[in-house]
Design brief:
The protein is about 25% helix and about 25% strand. It is α/β, with parallel strands linked by helices. It folds into 2 domains: about 1-150 and about 290-340, Quinone Oxidoreductase, Chain A, domain 1 (Alpha-Beta Complex), CATH 3.90.180.10; about 150-285, 3-Layer(aba) Sandwich (Rossmann fold). The strands form 3 sheets. Strands 3, 4, 5, 6, 7, 14 and 15 form a 7-stranded mixed beta sheet that branches. It has a 6-stranded parallel beta sheet with strand order 10-9-8-11-12-13, with helices on both faces. Helix 7 links the parallel strand 11 (about 230-235) and strand 12. The longest helix is centred in the middle third of the chain and has 21 residues, at about 140-160. It is globular. The two termini are about 15 Å apart. InterPro entries: ADH-like_C, ADH-like_N, ADH_Zn_CS, ER, GroES-like_sf, NAD(P)-bd_dom_sf, Zn_alcohol_dh. One of its GO terms (molecular function) is oxidoreductase activity, acting on the CH-OH group of donors, NAD or NADP as acceptor. Keywords: Metal-binding, Oxidoreductase, Zinc.
Length: about 350
């Protein structure tokens, strides 16, 4: 099969012919129909993700058609499926308690094992997969794979956002846009922060009540002023120190900060304003991925038209364009995300 292989950090991926993946007993092999290009892929591409090594086929936001089924998997050849990027075992105490996204024996295509920057991908623990609704395109489904699922769990499974609450979003990339769209669908009022004028204007067009340039003044103080006391929930979507502190400091007393941006490599350790946490009795939530059992609630929101996620997808690209998309994360990016839909080009 054709695949884009990481051979050297910060260098173009190598487009190669590699062996087709084997099907595991509890898994399936998918013909990849679409795969998103995510900032988490970039962390691996630059060498800051501790699990991503040269030789890796990246790509963890995928949708595909079943071409092979293991003896213990329930799916059939021809089924169109979408997967969370964390594949949980289903048997450990964490999984049994409903917290599959912290499964201790989780499998991670795209990070540890071959991912979906390829024509085919092997998916173990296939009970994590969900059937793709007929009304949802593979490209849209791939866009859900990491950013939207993570945003959904951050808002509903961690912060428990309520209608009428103020939600601040720091960073309007794929995660930030997903938080904006989903929070508004839940009835929240949203303020976004970024440093790219085009992205701020885009967010306003999608229903943000205010859009602040993070380079202009004390963003946290401005959010407190606009919201009449501070945001109820603030989501950090970049994984860097400045926006994490702004997220904490913009909250009202008893507010909830959700850390969605990945602090890894040089950002793994930060100086945080813990005095604000202490004085305002704040709650800090970490979140990564989404338990697979939560797919129906998210897919239902989308298929019944309660939320339109199409503004998230900016462009469809070829497999050979993946390197350029990864390189774009080196600086400020344009609105929306890229999805690979052509694996021959």
């Amino acid at each position: 099969m054709r695949a884009a292989v990481l051979r050297e950090y910060n260098a173009d991926l190598s487009i190669e012919d590699v062996a087709d993946p084997a099907c595991e007993a509890d898994g399936v092999v998918l013909r990849v129909l679409a795969c998103g290009v995510c900032r988490s892929d970039w962390h691996g591409w630059v060498g800051e993700h501790p699990r991503v090594k040269p030789g890796q086929i990246q790509g963890h936001e995928y949708c595909g058609e079943v071409v092979a089924v293991g003896r213990d998997a329930k799916w059939q050849v021809g089924d169109r499926l979408v997967a969370p990027f964390i594949l949980a075992c289903g048997a450990c105490p964490e999984c049994q308690s409903g917290n599959q996204n912290i499964c201790k024996t989780q499998r991670l295509p795209g990070f540890v094992e071959p991912g979906a920057f390829a024509e085919y991908v092997s998916v173990p623990f296939a009970h994590n997969l969900a059937r793709l609704p007929e009304s949802l395109s593979p490209v849209m489904a791939a866009g859900l794979g990491c950013r939207v699922t993570t945003a959904w769990h951050a808002l509903t499974g961690r912060a428990a956002v309520q209608a009428g609450e103020w939600v601040a979003v720091h960073g309007t990339g794929g995660i930030g846009l997903s938080v904006l769209l989903l929070a508004r669908a839940l009835g929240a009022r949203v303020i976004v922060v970024d440093v790219v004028a085009e992205k701020l204007a885009h967010a306003m067009g999608l229903g943000a009540e205010a859009a602040l340039d993070g380079r202009n003044g004390d963003v946290a103080a401005r959010i407190v002023e606009i919201t009449g006391g501070g945001a109820h929930v603030s989501v950090e979507a970049l994984g860097i120190e400045a926006t994490t502190n702004a997220s904490i400091e913009c909250l009202r007393p008893l507010g909830r900060h959700v850390q969605v941006g990945m602090p890894v490599g040089h950002t793994a350790h930060m100086q945080i304003n813990m005095n604000a946490v202490y004085m305002k009795n704040l709650a800090l939530f970490g979140t990564r991925g989404m338990p697979s059992w939560r797919y129906p609630s998210l897919l239902d929101m989308i298929t019944r038209g309660a939320v339109d996620m199409t503004p998230l997808i900016a462009r469809e690209v070829r497999l050979s364009d993946a390197s350029a998309e990864l390189r774009a994360f080196n600086g400020p990016t344009s609105p929306g995300v890229a999805v690979i839909s052509d694996f021959a080009g």
